[in-house]
Structure formats: C-alpha cells, structure tokens
Specification:
Elements lengths: L93 E6 L13 E5 L15 E10 L20 E8 L8 H16 L3 E6 L9 E2 L11 E12 L4 E2 L3 E6 L1 E3 L2 E3 L1 E10 L5 E11 L5
Parallel strand pairs: 2-13
Antiparallel strand pairs: 1-3, 3-8, 3-9, 4-7, 4-12, 5-6, 5-7, 10-11, 12-13
C-alpha cells in the first residue's frame, strides 16, 4: 500500500521527521515480485492414444492402422480372427477370418461357426440367386500377433515365430465327399499359394509331421507311401499377421424329398512351425434355406 503524502510544517524548513520512511518505499520489495510460474502449453500435454494409429495400446487387441471392419481388426481395435478351437499356446500359428465375422461368445472372441441364409448378400457371395448353396468367404491368417489370450502375468500365451507348413484334413484329399469338397480344398490351397506356399506331398502313415516331402512312393524308403498333400513354406513364413486373400468355400443346401434343408461343411487343418510347434483349427460353415415370406 502507498504511504500518505506528508503535510509541510509552518516553518520553511521541512521537519526531518516528515521524510518518508525507507520502509514505506513505493518501490516493490523483492518479495513482492511475482515468482516465475510454469506455463502450461497444449504441446506439452501427451495426446491420448487412439485406435487406428498403428500401435497397439493398453485395452486394444490389435491395431492395423485403419478404422475398417472386416480386415481382421475392427474399427474399435478388437480382433476379428477366429482361433478355431486349437490350443491357446499355439493359436498364433493360424487363425481363420471370415466375412462377415461370426457372432462373439461370452469371452468376446468370435465363435468357430458361421451361419448364413441362402442368397443373403451379407454372407452368401455367390453370383447367382436360387443356386441352393452359400458361397462363404474364408481367409487364413498366419503367424498372428495374438494378444487376447494371456497368462497370469498378462503376457501373451503364444508368441509368433514362423509357419513352415499347413495341411488340410477336411476337405479330404484322398476320399472327397463330392466335387464341392475338391473345389473348396483347391480354393483354400490357392489362397495359401498366394501367400508363398507350394503344394507338396508327404510320406504316410498319417499323423506324422510333414517333414518328408515326396513325389512318389520311392521317396519314402519303401516302408511308407507318398500320400497326403500339404502346403509348404520355403523358407518358413516369418512375417507377422499375414492373411491370405479370401477363398470361396461353397456349402450346398441339403436337398431331399421334402425340399431344401440346412447344409453344413467343416474345415479342419493343422499347421506347424520350423521349431516343431503345432496347431489344429476347425471352422464350421452352415447354410440355411431361405424361407418363403
């Protein structure tokens, strides 16, 4: 506060006592000088991570750098991949991707069955209506960065390394159910070929790891036979999150004396890494007849 102005005394000489005290100086003291304050700048505040930035953040199952559905990672960064009921510790070798994505179970993971009504354009991709069949779109995703299944320390149960081979047990090669199974297997193998795999055969009996490629029985030492076909990656596929193009998998309706009934086809495969890890996956495709209105 400013000191009051002194009043002059009657004599011409000002009284010394009237001189303002130095302790009442109008000059602000050093203690009155405002101390430097921290300036809050918006550029200093970290920007919250957002889905679609290409980096997986806490709370995200995936992040492929976009906000599109149907490509394996949806617009909310939830995985759309189908584990296929194999062991959780080897799920990262292979998972299915379908269009559309099946319903999710209680855990939030897509179920291993996709149901479609004949001629429904959201799931039946056939060119013709009235063909009594559903044409499903199925892709195979390899060497997956699987973050949905974790241990007690919140670490992924499966760490992707590579995929050396894939073999189909359904559709069957040796004894196909019909021409549709042959076409379905060819379509799935063509999708894998597009990812770099080549068709090979392996020495039987069944159940062995396809480590002995063959062209004829003579390659199997006389004790086994050159039979089961499999897809071989040379060198093993080590790229993470590699999904094939969609393959057309056809599921005909079951036709009988009383009309069309629900048709079902099951896909089964095994896959393996170069270090011996194996995975088995199943996918059930169901085609239901369209009911008359």
């Amino acid at each position: 506060m400013r000191s009051p102005t002194p009043t002059p005394s009657p004599t011409a000489t000002p009284s010394p006592s009237a001189t303002p005290s130095s302790t009442r100086s109008t000059t602000p003291s050093s203690s009155a000088t405002p101390s430097p304050t921290r300036t809050v700048s918006p550029s200093v505040t970290p920007t919250p991570a957002a889905c679609g930035n290409g980096a997986v953040q806490p709370g995200e199952e995936c992040d492929d750098g976009n906000l599109l559905d149907g490509d394996g990672c949806d617009a909310t960064c939830r995985s759309e991949l189908i584990p296929g009921s194999g062991p959780r510790r080897s799920d990262c070798l292979h998972e299915w991707l379908t269009s559309p994505v099946p319903s999710r179970g209680r855990s939030g993971v897509p179920l291993t069955a996709l149901v479609c009504v004949d001629d429904d354009p959201s799931c039946d991709f056939g060119a013709n209506t009235g063909d009594a069949a559903c044409r499903f779109h199925v892709a195979l995703c390899l060497n997956v960065s699987e973050r949905r299944f974790v241990d007690r320390a919140a670490q992924p149960l499966c760490t992707p390394t590579d995929v050396a081979w894939v073999t189909f047990t359904a559709p069957r090669e040796a004894d196909p159910r019909d021409a549709t199974e042959v076409a379905n297997r060819d379509a799935l193998e063509a999708a894998l070929a597009g990812a770099g795999a080549t068709v090979r055969r392996q020495c039987q009996p069944p159940g062995v790891v396809p480590s002995t490629p063959c062209a004829s029985d003579s390659d199997c030492g006389g004790t086994r036979h050159c039979r089961t076909r499999f897809m071989l990656f040379t060198p093993p596929l080590d790229v993470h999150d590699r999904c094939t193009a969609f393959a057309d998998v056809i599921v005909p309706l079951r036709l009988g004396a009383h009309g069309a009934g629900t048709g079902t086809r099951t896909l089964r495969l095994s896959s393996g890494s170069s270090i011996g890890t194996r995975d088995s996956d199943v996918l059930k495709l169901v085609c239901r007849p369209r009911r008359a209105l």
